[in-house]
Task: inverse folding
């Protein structure tokens, strides 16, 4: 089940970036579960990772390798290789070594990523045996196959792509993501892999990624859980004819805006595919004292099981939203100045139910597949948006049956 149009978009190939997939039978044999992404020599790589203290073995290894000019990303689905102790570290390192031997590089030029069940050892023999086939399948236009290979409980592959111009020369930004549950990113997404052919120094590439992630993947939540395996990577192959992007230049502004747009599309696709989701909910907090306050209020609403189940039932139980705003930790909030809307329907003003509000109008808003909750705090000029979805019966079923 997913919300809205989830068709896979046209994906523009990125010169200097190839993708190859295959099936290793890690958890299933119906679709590919191994992905290799190869970047030409001379490219740059930036990445951000989960801040979960129990981060997975591949996250540890990827962090170690990040500063050593990575050229390959190695991803598997079906097994998170998290909570696996020293053996997990050995398996992650062996996977890097095996790919390096096949591809003709060094082990520390490989960044490993895993997603799936936590606490089970990676079937490393199957993994390693499948790598030659994945490498053999490397191609420029492998984005859709790549998006499918990294899926777990996802119901559709997620991609975004666009081409911009810098001084009349095209620059491509193309990416994929995965995620449907355990979604409350903290400095990363579930898994996101984005590539560009831009020429850009690594520190500036990292700055661009961090800024984009903060305004996209860090503004979504499905269930309030931060995964052990979250990671987002931005590769730059430097193959475009466009001039090199310099800090604080007009080119950087155009480029960073495009990267943010791609990240926002990928992040929204994750929420649309939230486990059991039937509705997409945009929570827009306006007139906050600062961005942090706006995000805090937005996420307090978005994380509330009572709010999310009311949305599933199309029940305009506006008191649940009011209560969430009230417990968001806003100091000295003037209750009589707060306004709350469901789409265009004002539900709260002057400290209580809006005089114009009717149950029929509230229910009509709640029946929509996509709903906007607006909260006006009357405290300042800051505004932020948080995306979430409802909680349905299927969310419980999917997660209760995840390992069976």
Result:
């Amino acid at each position: 089940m997913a919300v809205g149009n989830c068709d896979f978009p046209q994906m523009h190939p990125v010169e200097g970036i190839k993708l190859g997939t295959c099936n290793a039978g890690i958890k299933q044999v119906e679709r590919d579960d191994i992905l290799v992404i190869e970047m030409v020599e001379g490219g740059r790589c930036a990445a951000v990772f989960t801040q979960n203290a129990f981060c997975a073995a591949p996250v540890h290894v990827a962090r170690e390798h990040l500063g050593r000019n990575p050229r390959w990303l190695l991803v598997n689905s079906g097994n998170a290789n998290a909570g696996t102790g020293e053996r997990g570290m050995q398996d992650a390192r062996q996977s890097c070594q095996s790919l390096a031997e096949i591809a003709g590089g060094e082990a520390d030029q490989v960044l490993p990523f895993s997603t799936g069940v936590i606490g089970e050892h990676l079937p490393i023999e199957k993994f390693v045996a499948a790598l030659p086939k994945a490498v053999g399948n490397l191609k420029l236009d492998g984005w859709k196959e790549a998006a499918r290979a990294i899926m777990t409980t996802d119901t559709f592959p997620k991609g975004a792509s666009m081409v911009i111009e810098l001084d009349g020369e095209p620059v491509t930004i193309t990416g994929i993501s995965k995620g449907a549950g355990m979604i409350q990113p903290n400095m990363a997404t579930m898994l996101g892999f984005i590539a560009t052919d831009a020429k850009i120094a690594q520190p500036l590439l990292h700055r661009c990624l961090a800024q984009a992630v903060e305004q996209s993947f860090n503004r979504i939540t499905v269930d309030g859980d931060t995964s052990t395996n979250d990671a987002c990577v931005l590769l730059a192959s430097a193959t475009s004819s466009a001039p090199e992007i310099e800090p604080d230049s007009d080119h950087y502004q155009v480029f960073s805006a495009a990267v943010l747009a791609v990240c926002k599309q990928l992040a929204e696709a994750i929420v649309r595919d939230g486990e059991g989701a039937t509705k997409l909910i945009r929570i827009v907090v306006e007139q906050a004292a600062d961005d942090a306050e706006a995000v805090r209020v937005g996420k307090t609403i978005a994380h509330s099981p009572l709010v999310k189940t009311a949305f599933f039932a199309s029940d305009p139980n506006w008191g649940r939203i009011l209560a969430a705003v009230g417990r968001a930790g806003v100091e000295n909030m003037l209750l009589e100045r707060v306004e709350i809307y469901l789409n265009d329907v004002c539900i709260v003003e002057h400290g209580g139910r809006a005089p114009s509000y009717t149950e029929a109008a509230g229910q009509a808003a709640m029946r929509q597949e996509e709903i906007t909750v607006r909260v006006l705090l009357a405290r300042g000029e800051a505004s932020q948006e948080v995306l979430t979805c409802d909680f349905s019966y299927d969310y419980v079923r999917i997660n209760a049956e995840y390992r069976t």
Q: What stands out?
A: The first helix runs from residue 57 to 65. The chain has two domains: 17-272, 280-400. The longest strand covers residues 169-178.
